[in-house]
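EI: anyone free to look at a 229-residue chain?
SC: sure, send it
EI:
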Amino acid sequence: MAANTISALPISPCYRKVNHFPPFPRSLTLTPYNLVLSSVIGSELSLRSINARRGVLKHCRPAVATVSLLLPTAKPERTSSEKLPKWSARATRAYSLGQVEAHKLKYPKTGTESLLMGILVEGTSFAAQYLRENGITFYKVREEAINLLGTSVDKYYAPDDPPLTEPAQRAIDWAVDEKLKSGESGEITTTHLLLGIWSEKDYAGHKILETLGFDDEKAKELAKSINVD
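SC: here you go
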């Protein structure tokens, strides 16, 4: 699977002036928790530039992150395709933040409801703004998710990055299919992801959206800006 990389400076045990950049340690996979450390996915300069401007390196575990801009797919032929459209940085963050929300609620898997929460937690995309303008907020979605699915028992250990449910995987693949069918260049957006969630009519994400006033007319209106992220 193709991957882009962002590089974070190794951090010394104490504060010190930055006179040079030491060699980078080996790469490790980016988890949903340290994904949010950088606001620019795929940029090799984001964390380096921030630390250089501050003139200090704060105490932290050394980390270098490798970020895939291809979300998981149930279609094996896509994993090695160099022509497959990449997901936007916002959509990738929304996906990972959805995993975080699933973990918080102690769900064993990341469902369409968690992906929906991830879109709203990320918050900067056109899709998230459209939802908020229509009264659909993160807290309302979370409350509806708990009403619909409940939460797991207190002693249950939820994985840090819960795998996708089948409906959530289909929502992601729907988004990719729609982008491919359009024949247009550019990235797969958070709007594609939201409409993919809506396409799974019998599952939690769709039901929550419907309860909060989202409908096919709003989906059609949103689809007019599907390439806007």
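EI: Residues 1-68 form one domain.
SC: 👍
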